[in-house]
Known about the structure:
This is PH domain-containing protein. Residues 156-177 are annotated as: Disordered. Residues 18-116 form the PH domain. The chain is an alpha+beta fold. Among the domains are: 8-114, Roll (PH-domain like); 115-157. Helices cover 41% and strands 17% of the residues. It has helices spanning 7-14, 101-112, 116-162, 201-204, 207-211, 218-240, and strands at 21-28, 35-43, 46-50, 60-63, 67-71, 81-86, 94-97. The chain has a seven-stranded antiparallel beta sheet with strand order 4-3-2-1-7-6-5, covered by helices on one side. β2 (35-43) and β3 (46-50) form a beta hairpin. The model is unreliable at 1-5, 168-173 and 184-210 (pLDDT under 50).
Amino acid sequence: MKIVNAKGIVRYAMSGGPPEKEGFLLKRGDLNRGFQRRWFVLKGNLLFYYEKRTDKEPVGMIILEGCTIELAECEDVDNYAFQISFSGSGTRTYVLCADSQDAMEAWMKALSCAPYEYIRLVVAELENQLEELSSTENARIVQAAERDSRILSQMYAEDSASGKKHPRSAQSYQGDRVNPFNDLAESTGNLCAFKGRPSSSSQWFGVATWQGLGVSNFHGMHEQMRQQIKELGLKTKHTSN
Length: 241
């Protein structure tokens, strides 16, 4: 394909970006069926070829879309020939020849991976693999969370059955701080004098404290306190008189 009035493509060919592949190949002419040595440069899905390696502008370009890369049979060159063919009528088949088996395989592989359609399929496949990996990882995380939840639930159930307290409750026992409602004071006459540490789960909530005073509920507690305050007021009034 001759480049006619394609300055943008020429600038792209001359850009400083590294090519996917470059090197010398023999190319069969369209009119002249002989082979000519050309310098080929592959950039994206465009294959440029130059008369000389030092040339600035290419003499031709092949757009690698909708093409097939396959081996070619040529009697007039070594058996390292391959071709770029296109489907449809009126299309041209480009016959190229490398100087070794390794070079031929490298060029055929690079040209096969160059078309946009191939790249699109590769990207789609990578996206599918990433989605599968993400789904697998998410499922693994959910399973691990469910397993940990079952273990914790079982631990709390066993602690509740055995009468053990939550680990945070043990923090109240550390240091000099104690709950003033844990135990009865030495003198049960003073409702505010409590000290010591709980000896049972009921004392932890201060229930045993008031049960020790003969009070079974908070209503009774308030009634008893009201009665004591009333008696204290009467004593004070009697003393002042």
